[in-house]
Sequence to fold (115 residues):
Amino acid sequence: MGAFVISKRYNDEYKFVFTSRKGKVVFTSLSYELKFECEDDIERFKENMESASFLKFKSSSGKFYFKLMLAGNHFATSRKYTTSLRLQKGIDEIVRFGVLSETLDFSVNDFVFID
Fold:
């Protein structure tokens, strides 16, 4: 099962990624100023998963990616895939496990290992 992972960007804004069962990033969200906005959008996504749509693109370098649209608004952008089959597998992972996935919060900068 995948997971939604909340973290901070370098500019102190929040984001979340959806990771696959194998730990690879499938898509990355837009930036959020506050952490609760991140958490709310994850829940909104889980509740409205059936209305999500995936716009598929091919970059100038020949890589494939998609934009995840929710209620007609851009919600997230996928990582780059080498083939359209791998792109479809990423989409299938979201559809199959997105609703069941847990949310992990790694936005706190407390280090476990001390220098």
